[in-house]
Amino acid sequence: MTDTTEPKPLGVCLVANVARETSHGEGGLEIREGLRHFAPGAKVWIAPPAWGDGGENVIVAGRHRGNSRRYIRIVIQSRFLENFRVKPVYSPALVRALTEAEPGEEHEFAARFLWPQEQAESWARSWNTPKMAAKVDGDRHRTHLVTDPPPLELHVDGVTHYLAHFSARGARYSPEPPPVEPSPTTG
Fold it and tell me: Would strands 30-33 and 139-147 be described as parallel, antiparallel, or unpaired?
């Protein structure tokens, strides 16, 4: 008699794909296919943020571009990733790659390097929402993140600011409302 039960997952993890095109260099003008260590579209498994930088840099494990058999673990910028989702983790080798645990130790490290389901889903939703930098007139020291395309109004510290300019480099908001066009007169 064979055992037909499915294996139990070790936990869940946030998963993404490496972007097809990534920008590098001064001003982001150098365009590459994928990353040095990962091919475009490669699936990577993301460890929970470790530095308190809001996930700008993340620890990932995935199969290296040159060797599809073994997992590698490196730190990359999350801006090079797309299509975030939550997946169960079944592979002890993957947990070892994420945690740098020795064989047999993966279970004690899994709880620390795998995600709580709700947190992983929240981060996936957040990272799948396009964002762009926004500046508010009179506030030179702070940059805000807004959706792309940006909203027409931005509320900061109880004050409503209005979209004044928007380009690929970001959005700028002003406390002045947009001009009102005169209504056409019929004659």
Answer: unpaired
DSSP class per residue in 85-140: EEEEE--HHHHHHHHTPPTT-HHHHHHHHSB-HHHHHHHHHHHHS-EEEEEETTEE
Query: Tokens standing for 46?
Result: 């993301």
pLDDT in tens, 37-46: 999 999 999 9
Q: Minimal CA–CA distance to 45: which of 6, 77, 84, 1? A: 84
SS3 23: strand
pLDDT digits (tens, 9 = 90+) for 123-152: 899 888 877 888 898 887 788 888 777 888
pTM, entire model: 0.66
Along the chain (187 residues), what's the average pLDDT of each consecutive run of 10 residues? 73 91 74 87 89 79 84 89 92 84 59 80 87 83 81 88 85 88 72
* 43-46/170-174 β-pairing: unpaired
**Nearest of 66, 71, 23, 70 to residue 44 by alpha carbon:** 71
Q: How far is CA 178 from CA 140, 161, 167, 168, in A?
A: 21, 10, 17, 21
Preceding peptide of 149 cis, ω within 30°: yes
State both tokens at 21. Answer: 């095109």
